[in-house]
Amino acid sequence: MADLVLGPSGGNGGHEFHSYAAPAGATLREIRVNAGFYVDGIQLVYSDADGVLVEMPHIGGKGGLHHTLALDADEYVTGVSGRCGRFIDSIRFQTNKRSSDSFGGPGGSEEYHYEAAANGEIVGFAGRADWYIDQLGVIVRDRLATAAGRAPAAAPDIPAAAAKPPAKSRKKTAPAADLVALPDAAPVAPPQPDLVAIPESAPLPTGGPSLVAIPDSGPVEATAPELIGIPDSAPIAVESEAMVTGARTASVDLGASVLPDDLTRIEGIGPKMTQVLGESGITTFAQLAATSPARLREILDAAGNRYRMIDPGSWPDQAALAAADDWSGFEALVARLKGGRRV
């Protein structure tokens, strides 16, 4: 049966690619994905009938994070799903053994899902791509046709005499404690910790902070660790006030993260510009609203000559309305713009 193409989903940008699939008789072994806010690019790796790994050309861009889904020898892809809009925002793979993580961003206005029939497998993709994967469909092939091209591996002929004896354990039994019993001897108490007794001093509780008791001295308040009170001694100055008062700074949640906004909603900002701003730490409407046009101009100039004709003057005003969820005001402002410029 000929290969079947399901889809595609996504936008209409980029350049068309088709028949991007492992050849008949090959086994798909890796799917490599580059993804950030969108799915940037995809690359397939297969093993041929001789077991040689072959890397296919990379499709799309090479930005974002690099992910590799390695497939077992008896594992094959049965489904592909995710979200899309103008681009493929995210992608997830299902195999006959498991479901992968979702690679890409949280955006996308639509969901897509492609699944091979019970006797089929997904062996490749078709669609459109440039800096990102703009559009994506899957190529499905009958598994009987795929398996027919694979030569079964011959079982190695190992003589019975070559069989190895069971390996001896290298572990040793731990020796028993060296205890000697003496006739009529009283039981021996275990050794006590190294404590020093001071005449007429009160007993020291074990497990507490390292305090030293001095005869006839007043009690010492252990308000800070590793402090020793000495009678009639002058107070000792401490460098930091926080060490004396026990003041603490506000706690910071190092695991907290800020979800990015879809900056392409700003008139004049596209996916590549979103990536440029993200590299400068601007990923939300609020951050963009707080960035001056002069600073945005510096970011664009540093990104290359292609961005020097872009006018970011209205971006903070647009972003402020978007951050405030004032979409009616946002649309009114955008209506007065052309390519992000005030007209």
Fold and architecture overview:
The protein has 343 residues and is of the alpha+beta class. Among the domains are: 4-148, Jacalin-like lectin domain (Vitelline Membrane Outer Layer Protein I, subunit A), CATH 2.100.10.30; 263-342, no CATH class. It contains seven helices and 15 strands. The strands form four sheets. Strands 3, 4, 5, 6 and 7 form a five-stranded antiparallel beta sheet that branches. A four-stranded antiparallel beta sheet has the order 1-13-12-2. β12 and β13 (133-142) form a beta hairpin. Mean pLDDT is 78; it is low at 151-183, 195-199, 208-212, 222-228 and 238-252.
What layout of secondary structure does this protein have?
Elements: E1 4-10, E2 15-21, E3 27-35, E4 39-47, E5 53-55, E6 59-60, E7 65-70, E8 77-84, E9 88-95, E10 103-104, E11 110-115, E12 120-129, E13 133-142, H1 143-148, H2 241-245, H3 271-279, H4 285-289, H5 293-303, H6 315-323, H7 327-335, E14 337-338, E15 341-342
Antiparallel strand pairs: 1-13, 2-12, 3-4, 3-7, 4-5, 4-6, 8-9, 8-11, 9-10, 12-13, 14-15
Helix pairs in contact: 6-7
CATH homologous superfamily descriptor of one domain: Jacalin-like lectin domain
Number of helices: 7
Number of strands: 15
Q: What composes the largest sheet?
A: 5 strands, antiparallel
Reading off the top of the CATH hierarchy, the class of one domain is best stated as Mainly Beta
Which whole number gives the mean pLDDT?
78
Q: Give me the strand/helix succession.
A: EEEEEEEEEEEEEHHHHHHHEE
Rg (C-alpha, Å): 35 Å
CATH topology term of one domain: Vitelline Membrane Outer Layer Protein I, subunit A
- Tell me, briefly, the overall form: globular
Helix fraction? 10-25%
Q: What is the CATH architecture annotation of one domain?
A: Aligned Prism
Determine the oligomeric state from the structure.
Answer: single chain
How far is it from the N-terminal to the C-terminal residue, by CA? 58 Å
Structural class estimated from helices and strands: alpha+beta
